[in-house]
Amino acid sequence: MKILVAIKQVPSRESQLRINSTGQWIDESDLSFEINEPDAYALEEALQLKEKYSGEVVALCAGPASASQTIREALAKGADRAIHIEEESLASLDTLAVARLLAKAAETESPDLILTGLQSDDLGFGQTGVVMAELLGMAHATIIMHVEKTDSFISVKREMEDAWFQNVQLPLPAVLTIQSGISKLRYATLMGIKKAKTKDVKRLTAGELGVDLQPVISMQRVYAPEKSKQTQLLDGPPKEAAAKLIEKLKFEVRAL
Amino acid sequence: MSGVLVFLEQKSGVWNRMSWEALAAGQQLAASTGQPLAAAILGANAAALAAEAAKYKLDELLTVENPALANYTADGYSAAAEQVIRQKSPDYVLFPHTYQVRDFAPKVATRFHQLLVSDVIDIKQGPILVRQLFQGKLSADVQFQGAAPYFLSVQAGAFRADKLEAAASAAAPQAIDVQMDASKIRSQPGEPFRESQRAVDLTAANIIVSVGRGIKEKENIALVQDLATALGAELAASRPICDNGWLPMERQVGSSGQTVSPKVYIAIGISGAIQHLVGMKGAKTIVAINKDPNAPIFEVADYGIVGDLFEVVPALIEAVRKSK
Ligand SMILES: Cc1cc2nc3c(=O)[nH]c(=O)nc-3n(C[C@H](O)[C@H](O)[C@H](O)COP(=O)(O)OP(=O)(O)OC[C@H]3O[C@@H](n4cnc5c(N)ncnc54)[C@H](O)[C@@H]3O)c2cc1C
Ligand SMILES: Nc1ncnc2c1ncn2[C@@H]1O[C@H](COP(=O)(O)O)[C@@H](O)[C@H]1O
Q1: Is residue A207 within 8 angstroms of chain B, CB to CB?
Q2: What does the pLDDT average to over B25-46?
Q3: What's the pTM value of the predicted model, to 2 decimals?
Q4: Is there an atom of ligand 2 within 6 Å of A62 CB?
Q5: Does A36 contact ligand 2 (Cβ within 6 A)?
Q6: Of A177, B4, B69, B184, which has fewest CB within 10 angstroms of its CB?
């Protein structure tokens, strides 16, 4: 089974974000980056499927040259090779254009399965995988917790609202969007890290892929959210703040 | 070519309540763009549900019935939605941002060479759509470019169903015919099921102490458990804590866990992602303890302590004991 995994590099979760001078995106200059969280689980799922059913795992990433750090980590964890669509200004493309780039690059690989994360931590459109499926004419299922394969189809467990689940059978080839936390992530071994250096990374540019990049939406402005409530911040050293809070809960809220 | 078309969601004859929030967003968008409003119901027995939708102010109520729509499939629902949109040519197509919509609406938008602007929290004049970035840490104003139709889905709780304008006279449902080819439906859905027994009923708790990934390690859970015990509270958690197996699934609060509305909800080391907020926004008093003053949880908190939970929580335990 040939499995393609779409991985995106995003600012690390604990980053302090600052708006850049154009007001249309964040200042990325001194941030650290990591793999988008659900994509790490998509990669893990791909590696486990390969271990069970044999085959190949190919990491697919659209991002700036610096994304090669995240690609290397995927290779060190066990992806066999990677495709890097090098694009410095990802923020200027919309999600449809990015999905078109990823789909075009995926097409030449004829994978049996494409795994993506269910949502990116930065943009959070939650749809790149579904759009890729439509562009490639593949079946798909979203928010996947478990994958099993038989001879003719795959069976997946979908998450639904309020802790409901559903099993769905799909023919291959298919696209699945993977939920965070569905398994335990592996660490790269020293051997893996060493091997990653010799693994093939195919570099492509948006120009080479020749897809329509015309944006259908534009992000005008990025800003700190407007608050819906006035928060009473209780300050001072922890002891003092804690005492103030308990007093509030006792006398204002009357909950104690 | 004009109009606002809202797709309402139902499963086996039961409404998804977010449908009404999407309809409220539709009424707002129709009013601000001066366009007529239509709502569509897809299903095997869509017409049976029409009466409830007809209570609200709409220009057209469309029922799209077909046996192939009895159970949700992405292929079936995309094919039906696409045909309704082609027949009605609306400028704006609106959905509630449900799990089902996440599954098929992007596919429909792609067929029109468009993108679904998902999880919209506000619609300003323009229209300018507001959506969250970085799990709620930032907001962004988004505008459509080029020609219609434009696609958007609205976030749970962002538009108020209780603000829906009632109809002066009920719109007569109009049946829309769609051609469905059962052989084009590639997935076979099974029956929905639940896993955990829900031995813990968080909804009855007066006070909930809820812990997030800021707790760092399983061993530290005992610290928040101590606070819960001191307060006589139930212990709950964000999803990653339950995913890691540090607390059982039945203590998870949020869109894929329980929805609670206690008198006091104390969020400790929880960032406040929307999927968590929808499960606890209804609490009467929300307290946030987080070391990041910009964490989105503070947007809904009544009281907050910005600080290291490993210092604040022990101090709280002591303060509770003293106050007794
Ligand atoms: C389809 C879907 C369904 C989901 N369902 C749910 C759901 O039901 N429930 C749910 O909770 N989530 C759900 N999520 C996940 C959700 O999007 C968030 O990822 C999750 O809620 C984050 O959990 P967290 O706040 O504990 O972790 P993080 O986002 O990592 O936040 C940790 C917080 O702890 C703070 N912190 C760190 N160290 C300290 C310290 N020493 N002292 C004080 N504060 C500290 C940090 O500043 C940060 O704000 C769902 C996601 C999706 C896509
Ligand atoms: N630039 C990218 N490179 C690789 N994969 C991506 C990229 N953007 C999005 N994806 C994939 O699509 C998923 C959903 O992203 P989004 O639609 O932005 O929420 C992510 O979890 C990734 O798996």
Answers
A1: no
A2: 96
A3: 0.97
A4: yes
A5: yes
A6: B184
